[in-house]
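User: Run a structure prediction on this.
Assistant: Running it now.
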Amino acid sequence: MHPRLATLLTRYPALAPCAGDIASAAKMLEDSFRAGGKLLLCGNGGSAADSDHIAGELLKGFGHARTLPAADAMKLGGDLAKNLQGALPAIPLPQLTGLVSAFSNDCDPKFVYAQLTWGLGRPGDVLLAITTSGNSANVLHAADAAKARGMKTIGLTGQSGGKLLPKCDVCIRVPETETFKIQEFHLPVYHCLCLVLEETFFGDGKKTEFCDKPPEEGLSESDSYPGNLIHGKGARIYKITRSVRTKKRSSKH
């Protein structure tokens, strides 16, 4: 069990029945991101806000800043390399207000998330469908569109899963039936998912240093991505972590 999931269950023991589905959802997202896929999210009301919240945790550092991979840092250079962070592609469909309002005005609004899923989704992508009841019509139609697109669907619902349950590849059904109590469980569940993914793709957030000189004895050049790469002003990338650097560091930063 991932340590983040173990921590979640320690803090929220009532979520123990969801542990397998949370782990499966994390693996599904990991596989999609590794294959170049993206995450689409949808929901209504508080669940729409949750969609935006989740995307925000994935598109920048959440538990820690995400140092860019060496190759990306070299392409960006300068201030961009120092200030941008690693990201996982996630699109909160409710926040596309121009299209949502246009479609809802011109067409049947129950199909707005299906339209966006069909338009933006590609085979191998994942839809995270959030509905406390499991019965929101526009979310159900989005799940149908995702299946037709060759996508996977993760549901985040209340105890029953509602009509969404059979449409999901994985459905995380938190053990509550009242809307506000369901939402109170949804937040720690998706925070856990975001932390697991962050640590899977961007390491543990070990502190890094900028250096303009080649590595000293005992340090190595690196083009891989453990989350501790740094970009000097020169043309090379060096892997230098505070835990292994023993000599006086450069005065240039």
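The first strand starts at residue 39 and ends at 42.
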